[in-house]
Amino acid sequence: MEKTDKKVFIALHLLLLFYSMSSVLSKLASAEPFLSFKFCLYYGGMFCILVVYALGWQQILKRLPLTVAFANKAVTLVWSMVFGALLFKEQIRLNQLIGCALAVAGVILFVQPEKGGDREVQP
Question: pTM for the complete prediction?
Fold first, then answer.
């Protein structure tokens, strides 16, 4: 992996971390009365995060293939689980840990270069 690829992957994962914060704000908004100040604040924050994420996602796609970028999106499961445990005191169950481990393992396997050939399918 080239140095620029590493920078793009780091940027991708920081963007996905930022994106996963939208679910935190969404959950906070759901606990507030509809159209209250806090509801609007949380919902507006979530919307701003999604706008920034959409713009950042387009920049990532200019530098990475869609399949690689989309496969890495599975790490948002891990961030959501971490935020749920830290901020909302949610229990992390064994099946959730296994699922996240499988998702991360899949991402790692997918982005590893193949030995002895291209990843692309030849017609």
Answer: 0.75
Q: Residue with structure tokens 């990532």?
A: 60
Residue 102 corresponds to which amino acid?
L
Q: How far apart are CA 59 and CA 43, in angstroms?
A: 25
Rounded CA gap, 65 and 107, in Å?
A: 14
Both structure tokens of 6: 């590493």
Instruction: With a cut of 90, say whether residue 29 has pLDDT above it.
Output: yes
Q: What are the tokens at 103? A: 């998702």
pLDDT tens, position by position, 97-119: 998 888 888 877 876 766 544 55
